[in-house]
């Protein structure tokens, strides 16, 4: 009522003073958000459309000017939207400018949200738009290199492949399970493929101790917060996203044709044993080395059979459909979505299918009480290739027919022994089953209570039930299932259940220049893992497969395992902000875990961090602000833990033992120090990481250049190592917290907008990260455990090998390899003692990149947009085990089938300038060389023959999109519509000679799937 | 209205506060997660069944110790048995086994059998320690007499393992409760004191043989404990106490011999009247079998006429260990030169000849085909040479009678010693015609030592007998030098048989390197002299 009167009063006053009249105006320019004055803002006065005056406000944002009533005062300030006010009666005016820097951008942090500008720690956000930019079957791969410091490697190129995720380098020697994912407050670890990327609002990577430390003992490998979409208040929406397309073979290997293969094989036999095989190329010699089918192919003029094509399902289709509905009107807000995804693989009988549904609901029951919950269910089925089918199809003799006269895959059986001499990889593709099925349900229920203003009490109960099943069946037509197995099946089931109960209280307090944000809470988490494994062979028939594993006459495996742990935690956080530019954040968490014995049940993890918004200091002059639009410094230090150790390590196990008293009556018993011989260590504790992070966020030229730099140092101690015990204890090892390592690195993110006009925009983003990890301590009195695990080296990824030193030539000195011949691999005598001994094995490379990151470009002209996303890594090496197999015709080390065109350039007396050794059908006797080119089974490391530079630059996708105009859309009652054409993996630039250098793990280069490109058409529609 | 709302709010607060405090306190208790796929020490020793199961684990280590090549410790490197020289070519491991026979450079702290024997003994001790610590704590034992019996068995077994260790390695670490910390070497005398204490405990807490029937047959008995205690006294040359305990066994416990020596090894008389303690094996489960025939047998042809050899033929095997010519021939001819023909032990102990498929004797000039030890030949109920269910003797009455004879002789009563000695001979020959007559103490010493070979050959005590009687070096040099023996017989100079290297230092085995490296209380300098 009073307000109304006031307005009437003002209105009447305006009427009275309607005449133009010059007056003195006292004005102040302030930030609309913070209320901070904006010094030296530009003020101009316009009367009747003509600028009459232009000047700067003073350092406090104040100005005084004369102005006619009805004229305009226009204020501009870098980084803010300009504003114009009409001169009225009032002589004192305050002009509030709204920042165009989006200072209010909110970032999800542990147990809450924070304005980006107020962050004190290293947090990188990945938006929904970025995640859904390119299709992914696994959310983890969608995150690859999107944030500096986030290293994601897919385990392969096959559909449904999983991924390994590292946050900021290596964090443990032995105890790794990947980062902790918090999905709307629910904790998940491992594979997060169950989450539909389309449901995600944002992903936050908590990289430093201060950001992740509140998750205490589970935060060692970083924390990734995933926030799902919520309905927008007061709006409803229906969205439909889809894409469909094909995948097309992009061969990484080109094999020899039939004629060259025949020559290779003859050469391989010839000099090994000329006495037996005679002059090569004659019919009698050929008859000794080729089978009847191959001889027929030779007689027909080298008929060539394309084995790759035989297992290939080229131009395999894929599609993905998501429908989501959101209702944000009323007190009940609902979001619902469903997904169907189907990707056929480009190898026959491989593929990936996923069905998932997500629903979330939040109800404001009373003004002080809110209830909500969500359920996500995902079911997926991956048809994996058999591990050998791709490689075997590459190395099959191209002279060998693929099918018999009846059109069935041809298996060559030796008539006298009845055993196959040639298995047909096509049967692996067509007949074998290798299936992985998962079911995952995440539910979360919560209640929020606001008993008094600014105090929020929240209790939530989340459950994650994850069931996965690996089924395989190899029938008699395949190598693994042939006699003596007569059908080989395995069912391996795992189920993990994680229940997390969380209770928090938050309180916000704001007075004057002081702002407090307090959080306290406790949580309880229980985790259980169950695994059952059955394996059997001797099936009466191949008709039924693994589902009838009961009919296996012989049980090869029949096992179960149950394990689990509980964690109870208390935590608190205080954030204090002074004048909006000095921010201090402190957290502490105490965890009690069942994995630790009574001596060390509890661990405490404190962190502290601070930020200084330099840009908001009054002494930063306005001239500076014309080019500097943001400047913030951050520092943090804290402890995080790693509780991921065997849940049973605190116990001395009693394992089963039997003894047959009186000859035949077997008595069951226990054996302390039994099978594993581990002495339980009741004083085991967390691996602890002390992490220091220093960061700066800086922006120039009206935010067109934004740079974020973080450097960190992680001293990780109390690492678990098995300590060998003296045999007189009766035990063999005890796990102890003894080792230490260090990881340090730099994360840089640069975002630039080179062009920003009305019609054309170009945005670009570059991520670069680098880290080094090394072990600093292992066991008391021991600084090496193996050649590749020792103090000074990274805890994993190091290759220790003999050094490949080219090929022996005629006339060379063979002192190092007395049985060697010209054309054989030469191993370098590193220590020069005239012998090849294990002392000649040296570090030949590391799979850890010297730097990695991504480069993203976005161009927009009117309604057309073009996105190009690429990732890169350099300085890392991989042991390409497949390379040896595919280039070296050798019975011991490589293979005695076909080789690549590169392998075809093998050494002969007339072709000496090559690194490919001579073909050798009989293999090199093991004693000739201490170890083969790659042979792990030699017991020693191999040579560096297959260690290859795996640096790469990879265009992940190119996407061309078109947004339909709203005028058109209004007619068809569509809110927004975007169509796009996309190609995935169009180009790969690398010197690595394999399918994909971007693979997980140092020895993952045993390739099971080809390389391919994907062409897609998609649409995103909002109703 | 506002009041009601306020009231409601406070109720919510109160209710949730109460619920949360309750749940929080219950969470605290949840932090002791119980493992579900194995038992812990505390959980295992919870009741009678758990105690029985725990003690079973102690026996299982003995079974491991005797089921394959660790069993050779005590047998080879003596005058009774030696390795075939071919075993050196089977790889580094078997070269180490040969080294235990000829005490060469592989008889070192990294020898896998020397290391393995140590490890398994201590595993047995760890199991015994757990039992000794936990069994007394069990309340409500369904049958308290079983509780004391199990404790007695555990003490017996611990003494058994320490007795091996102290004789072989000298001063040894002596954990009496399980710990991960390393212990220094305990002086031999103290180890013996502990062994004697443990065995005395066993003699009063174990059950007598007669009470251990059915599925309890094979457990450590009062008689076994007394016999072992007597052996310990004898080893310490404490003849007075040895005499007392042997006489107790003979006069009060009435230990006896089987009528036929051959019955002892035919696999049909397990846990028999003569047996005081034997290591149990069974073909019910291949894990519970022993594979000694594979080590003691020869691949050169079956020892049975008209048999063709395969892995199910008695006497077939891997040609690792064979009898010395002393054990296969001369000792059975002593002292008269012919009596092997009448000694029932000879045919039960030695596979003297080998045959081809036509039943003709095969002649060989190198080790395969020479006489092998027969006691471990499989019998009809066994699976194959790698899997035999035949029990092995640890202690039997014949040993006690011979130890009693030795005791009396050492006490200066050679005449009295003849009775127990001839008791053994009379069983072997079926009559007293080949009994020994009175002689002097020194001569009788040798006679008894020979008689032990004839009676107990290759049963695992020889090395310890020779060490106890101070004859290890002389007897090994005299009777077990494969190279010298071969040269003498064949006259060739290019012979691969290794020469015997036994020397003073071999009176003790080397402490395993893994022990010295990983035991903070030891270090490399704590090695026995000479290694």
Describe the structure.
The complex is a heterodimer of chains A (1023) and B (531). Chain A is mainly beta and 1023 residues long. Helices cover 9% and strands 48% of the residues of chain A. Chain A has 14 helices and 48 strands. The longest helix of chain A has 15 residues, at 2-16. Chain A starts with a helix and ends with a strand. Chain B is mainly α. Chain B has helices at residues 2-29, 41-44, 48-67, 92-102, 112-134, 144-169, 188-205, 222-235, 239-252, 292-296, 325-333, 344-349, 397-410, 414-429, 441-456, 462-468, 472-479, 482-490, 513-518, and strands at 39-40, 81-83, 275-279, 321-323, 350-351, 372-373, 392-396. Chain B is globular and about 110 Å long.
State the strand order across the main sheet of chain B.
2-4
Low-confidence stretches of chain B: none
Helical percentage of chain A = under 10%
For the biggest sheet of chain B, the summary is:
2 strands, antiparallel
The strand count of chain A comes to: 48
What is the strand tally of chain B? 7
Shape of chain B: globular
Kindly name the structural category of chain B. Answer: mainly alpha
Please state the oligomeric state of the protein chains shown: heterodimer
Query: How big is the Rg of chain B?
Result: 28 Å
Can you count the helices of chain A? 14
Report how far apart the termini of chain B are: 95 Å
Q: Write the H/E string of chain B, N to C.
A: HEHHEHHHHHHEHEHHEEEHHHHHHH
**Arithmetic mean pLDDT of chain A:** 86
Estimate the global geometry of chain A from the Cα principal axes.
Answer: globular
Distance between the termini of chain A: 41 Å
The average pLDDT score of chain B comes to: 90
Question: Strand portion of chain B, in percent?
Answer: under 5%
Q: Work out the helix count of chain B.
A: 19
Find the biggest chain interface.
A-B, 62 and 80 residues
User: How is the biggest beta sheet of chain A arranged?
Assistant: 22 strands, antiparallel, barrel
């Amino acid at each position: 009522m009073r307000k109304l009167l006031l307005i009437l009063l003002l209105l009447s006053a305006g009427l009275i003073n309607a005449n133009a009249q010059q007056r003195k105006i006292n004005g102040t320019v302030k930030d609309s958000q913070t209320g901070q004055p904006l010094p030296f803002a530009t003020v101009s006065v316009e009367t009747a459309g003509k600028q009459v005056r232009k000047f700067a406000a003073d350092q406090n944002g104040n100005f005084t000017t004369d102005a006619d009533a009805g004229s305009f005062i226009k204020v501009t300030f870098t980084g803010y939207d300009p504003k114009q006010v009409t001169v009225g009666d009032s002589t004192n005016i305050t002009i509030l400018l709204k920042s165009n820097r989006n200072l209010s951008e909110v970032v999800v942090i542990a147990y809450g949200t924070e304005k980006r500008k107020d962050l004190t720690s290293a947090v990188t956000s990945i938006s929904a738009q970025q995640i859904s930019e390119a299709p992914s079957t696994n959310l983890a791969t969608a995150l690859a290199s999107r944030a500096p410091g986030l290293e994601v490697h897919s385990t392969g190129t096959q559909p449904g492949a999983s991924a390994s995720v590292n946050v900021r380098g290596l964090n443990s020697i032995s105890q790794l399970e990947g980062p902790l994912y918090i999905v709307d407050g629910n904790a998940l670890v491992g594979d997060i493929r169950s989450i539909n990327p389309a449901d995600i609002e944002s992903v936050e990577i908590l990289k430093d101790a201060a950001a992740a430390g509140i998750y205490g003992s589970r935060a060692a490998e970083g924390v990734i917060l995933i926030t799902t979409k919520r309905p927008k208040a007061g709006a409803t929406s229906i969205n439909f996203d889809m894409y469909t397309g094909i995948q097309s073979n992009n061969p990484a290997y080109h094999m020899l044709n039939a004629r060259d293969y025949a020559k290779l094989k003859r050469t391989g036999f010839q000099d090994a044993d000329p006495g037996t095989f005679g002059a090569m190329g004659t019919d009698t010699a050929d008859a000794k080395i080729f089978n009847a089918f191959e001889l027929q192919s030779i007689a027909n003029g080298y008929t060539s059979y394309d084995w790759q094509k035989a297992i290939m399902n080229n131009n395999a289709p894929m599609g993905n459909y998501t429908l989501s509905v959101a209702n944000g009107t009323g007190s009940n807000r609902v979001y619902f979505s469903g997904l169907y995804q189907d990707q056929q693989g480009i190898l026959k009988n491989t593929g990936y299918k996923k069905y998932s549904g997500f629903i979330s609901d939040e109800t404001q029951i009373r003004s002080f009480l809110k209830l909500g919950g969500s359920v996500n269910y995902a079911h997926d089925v991956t048809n994996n290739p058999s591990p050998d089918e791709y490689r075997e199809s590459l190395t099959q003799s191209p002279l060998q027919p693929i099918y018999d006269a009846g059109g069935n895959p041809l298996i060559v059986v030796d008539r006298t022994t009845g055993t196959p001499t040639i298995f047909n990889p096509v049967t692996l593709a067509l007949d074998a089953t290798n299936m992985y099925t998962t079911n995952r349900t995440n539910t979360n229920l919560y209640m929020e209570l606001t008993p008094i203003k600014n105090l929020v009490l929240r209790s939530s109960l989340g459950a994650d039930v994850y069931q996965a099943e690996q089924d395989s069946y190899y029938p008699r037509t395949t190598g693994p299932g042939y006699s003596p197995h007569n059908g080989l099946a395995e069912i391996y089931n795992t189920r993990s259940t994680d229940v997390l109960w969380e209770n928090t209280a938050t309180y916000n307090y704001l007075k004057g220049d002081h702002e407090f944000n307090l959080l306290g809470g406790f949580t309880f988490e229980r985790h259980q893992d169950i695994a059952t494994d059955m394996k059997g062979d001797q099936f009466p028939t191949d008709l039924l497969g693994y589902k009838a594993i009961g009919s296996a006459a012989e049980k090869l495996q029949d096992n179960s395992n149950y394990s689990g742990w509980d964690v109870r935690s208390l935590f608190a956080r205080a954030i204090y902000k002074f004048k909006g530019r000095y921010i201090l954040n402190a957290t502490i968490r105490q965890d009690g875990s069942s994995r630790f014995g009574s001596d060390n049940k509890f661990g405490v993890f404190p962190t502290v961090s601070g930020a200084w918004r330099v840009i908001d200091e009054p002494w930063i002059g306005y001239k500076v602000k014309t080019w500097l639009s943001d400047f913030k410094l951050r520092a943090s230090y804290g402890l995080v833990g790693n509780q991921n150790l065997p849940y049973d390590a605190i116990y001395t196990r009693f394992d089963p033992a039997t003894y047959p008293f009186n000859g035949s009556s077997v008595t069951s018993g226990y054996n302390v120090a039994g099978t594993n011989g581990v002495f339980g260590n009741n004083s085991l504790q967390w691996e602890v990481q002390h992490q220091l992070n220093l960061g700066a966020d800086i922006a120039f030229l009206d935010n067109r250049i934004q740079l974020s730099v973080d450097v960190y140092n992680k001293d990780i101690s109390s690492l678990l190592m098995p300590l060998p015990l003296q045999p007189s204890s009766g035990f063999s090892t005890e796990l102890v917290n003894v080792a230490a390592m260090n990881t340090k690195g730099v994360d840089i993110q640069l975002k630039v907008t080179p062009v920003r006009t009305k019609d054309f925009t170009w945005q670009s983003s570059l991520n670069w990260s680098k880290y080094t990890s090394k072990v600093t301590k292992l066991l008391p009195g021991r600084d090496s455990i193996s050649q590749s695990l020792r103090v000074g080296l990274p805890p994993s990824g190091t290759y220790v090998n003999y050094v490949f030193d080219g090929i022996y030539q005629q006339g060379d000195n063979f002192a190092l390899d007395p049985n060697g011949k010209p054309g054989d691999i030469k191993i370098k005598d590193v220590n020069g003692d005239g012998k090849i001994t294990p002392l000649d094995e040296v570090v030949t490379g590391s799979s850890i990149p010297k730097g990695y990151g991504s480069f993203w470009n976005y161009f927009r002209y009117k309604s057309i947009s073009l996105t190009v996303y690429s990732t890169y890594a350099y300085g890392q090496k991989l042991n390409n085990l497949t390379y040896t197999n595919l280039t070296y015709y050798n019975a011991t080390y490589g293979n005695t089938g076909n080789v690549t065109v590169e392998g075809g350039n093998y050494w002969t007396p007339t072709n000496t300038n090559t690194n490919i050794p001579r073909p050798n059908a009989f293999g090199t006797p093991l004693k000739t060389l201490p170890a083969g080119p790659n042979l792990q089974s030699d017991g020693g490391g191999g040579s560096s023959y297959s260690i290859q530079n795996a640096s790469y630059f990879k265009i992940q996708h190119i996407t061309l999109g078109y947004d339909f105009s709203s005028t058109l859309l209004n007619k068809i009652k569509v809110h927004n519509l975007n169509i796009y054409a996309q190609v995935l993996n169009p180009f790969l630039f690398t010197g690595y000679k394999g399918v994909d250098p971007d693979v997980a793990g140092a020895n993952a280069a045993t390739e099971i799937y080809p390389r391919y490109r994907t062409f897609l058409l998609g649409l995103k529609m909002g109703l | 209205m506002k009041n009601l709302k306020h009231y409601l709010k406070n109720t919510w607060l109160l209710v949730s506060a109460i619920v949360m405090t309750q749940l929080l306190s219950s969470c605290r208790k949840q932090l002791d997660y119980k493992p579900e796929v194995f038992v812990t020490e505390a959980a295992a020793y919870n009741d009678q069944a758990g105690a029985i199961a725990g003690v079973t684990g102690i026996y299982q280590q003995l079974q491991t110790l005797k089921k394959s090549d660790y069993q050779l410790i005590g047998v080879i490197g003596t005058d009774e048995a030696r390795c075939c020289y071919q075993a050196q070519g089977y790889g580094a491991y078997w070269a180490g086994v040969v080294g235990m026979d000829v005490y060469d450079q592989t008889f070192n702290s990294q020898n896998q059998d020397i290391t393995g024997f140590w490890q398994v003994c201590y595993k047995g001790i760890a199991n015994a320690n757990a039992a000794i610590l936990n069994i007394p704590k069990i309340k409500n034992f369904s049958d308290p007499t079983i509780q004391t019996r199990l404790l007695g068995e555990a003490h017996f077994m611990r003494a058994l393992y320490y007795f091996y260790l102290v004789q072989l390695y000298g001063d040894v670490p002596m954990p009496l409760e399980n710990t991960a910390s390393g212990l220094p070497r305990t002086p031999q005398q103290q180890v013996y004191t502990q062994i004697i204490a443990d065995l005395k405990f066993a003699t009063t807490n174990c059950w007598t043989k007669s009470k251990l029937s059915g599925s309890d047959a094979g457990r450590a008995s009062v008689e076994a404990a007394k016999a072992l205690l007597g052996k310990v006294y004898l080893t310490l040359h404490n003849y007075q106490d040895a005499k007392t305990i042997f006489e107790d066994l003979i006069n009060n416990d009435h230990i006896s011999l089987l009528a036929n020596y051959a019955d002892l090894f035919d696999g049909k008389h397990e846990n028999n009247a003569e047996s005081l303690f034997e290591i149990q094996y069974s073909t019910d489960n291949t894990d519970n079998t022993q594979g000694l025939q594979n080590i003691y047998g020869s691949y050169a042809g079956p020892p049975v006429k008209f048999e063709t050899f395969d892995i199910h033929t008695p006497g077939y095997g891997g040609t690792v260990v064979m009898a010395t010519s002393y054990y296969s021939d001369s000792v059975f001819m002593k002292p008269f030169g012919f009596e092997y023909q009448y000694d029932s032990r000879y045919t039960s102990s030695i596979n003297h000849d080998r045959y081809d498929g036509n039943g003709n004797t095969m002649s060989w000039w190198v080790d395969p085909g020479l006489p092998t030890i027969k006691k471990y030949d499989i019998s009809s109920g066994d699976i194959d040479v790698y899997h035999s269910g035949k029990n092995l003797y640890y202690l039997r009455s014949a040993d006690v009678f011979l130890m009693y004879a030795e005791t009396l002789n050492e006490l200066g009563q050679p005449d009295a010693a003849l009775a127990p000695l001839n008791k053994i001979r009379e069983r072997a020959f079926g009559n007293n015609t080949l009994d020994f007559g009175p002689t002097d103490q020194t001569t009788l010493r040798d006679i008894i030592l020979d008689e032990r070979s004839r009676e107990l050959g290759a049963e695992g005590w020889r090395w310890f007998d020779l060490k106890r009687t101070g004859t290890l070096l002389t007897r090994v040099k005299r009777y077990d030098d494969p190279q010298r023996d071969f040269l003498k017989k064949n006259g060739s100079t290019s012979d691969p048989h290794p020469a015997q290297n036994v020397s003073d230092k071999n009176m003790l085995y080397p402490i395993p390197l893994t022990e010295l490296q990983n035991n903070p209380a030891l270090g490399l300098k704590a090695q026995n002299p000479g290694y």
